[in-house]
Amino acid sequence: MRFIWIIWFCLQSTFMWACSANSTNGAVPAGPNEEETADTLKLSRQMRVLIKGENLYIGARLDTSYDILYWFKKCMFNNLYTFYQVGIYPNSDFMPLSDPSIKPSHILNLAFSDNISPFSISGYGWCGGNHPYVDNITPTGYNITYQIILDGKPCTDEGAFLVNKVELLVENCILNPAVVQQIDGKNILESPLTIETVRYQIKGNSIEVKLMHEFKNEKPVTVQTYYGMQSMFMDEVYTMTIGGAYSNWTQQNGVSTFNKGAYPDMCCFLEKNHVASQASYLFNTGLGMHNDISDEDIIFIGNSNGKSYHKLISNKEFVKGDKIEWEGVYVWFRTPVFENEQFLCFEGNIEGNRTLFIQTKKGVDTVLPLPEYTNGRFRILESRGDIKIEGNTFYEGKLKVKSNGSTGCVLLLQ
């Protein structure tokens, strides 16, 4: 394997965009088979990056059979810079595919509607994200700037790169729909509602998001609804929620909403189609603590025109200088680390580190039989509800877990 990697590295500048010899062009992905593994130690942790104009393409190994491909660009109605498309493509090499801009064999996520950040302002309608003004013509936001950072260094050049770490710093302006001018019969929005600052960190199968809004409105406004972290996962068949009403895989036509009062520890929803799964995990900090919605408010919305949401704000007034923030991580996988009638465990990345997400589907007091490649020390990054993890090391699958119901925790592998 080391010999193959050396060949790739030496020929990168000349043959960067040659197609992988063992990739099947246009193949339709099948479900995971028994030979596949979620063991990321058998795969390269490096990523391929291609920058063409405003387009940022990233390719990484997903499992032993597929790469995951990310495409960032200005998108949605307001041309805000974010991840536009996430897909997969067959690859069984140690290294990721040479061309991360290749058309995916299957698209998992597509920002044809809201990705993150729309507000509903009481009396004035929606703004930001994919939303125009109430006239369905006038933009309600724009991108101010974005910066691509590769292995800790800002990158302003186009080209192809092999890297260990990708970060993206984005600044968008969300315009205030309560302040509108009419010029030559056209509605013009120029007054800012918020400056949205987003830090994306991409590693392996994960996009980590840290977002802040600073309000710039000259007069107070009431945010009727803010969803924040949303999902545009494609063709979902099942949904599951960690700490929520859907504690096991539930047919999509049976998924709806539930309130904070009944499920105050809800922190993550997972969606699954016939190819892969996506988790949208919201951390217990800032708006993720759900202090800006009441117990009677909806905390999760599923099956809404192909979208699912974390609800973060309901009917709260904001004035100039107020700040709000949330953090979360999107994780895609085809093969979980472990799953049975009691547990779902899958691997992702936080701050570039391998991370295990553990969900109990019901009350448990038993050993979680994790595979050998996860052995070692860990740190509990956060836990929800009453889940208890014994010790800080697991070996040969000996991880003792106890909970009274559906809940979860996040372990940072050391």
Automatic annotation (TrEMBL):
Keywords of the record: Signal
Annotated signal sequence range: 1-20
Top-level taxonomic group: Bacteria
Protein name as it appears in the record: Lipoprotein
Species of the source: Phocaeicola acetigenes
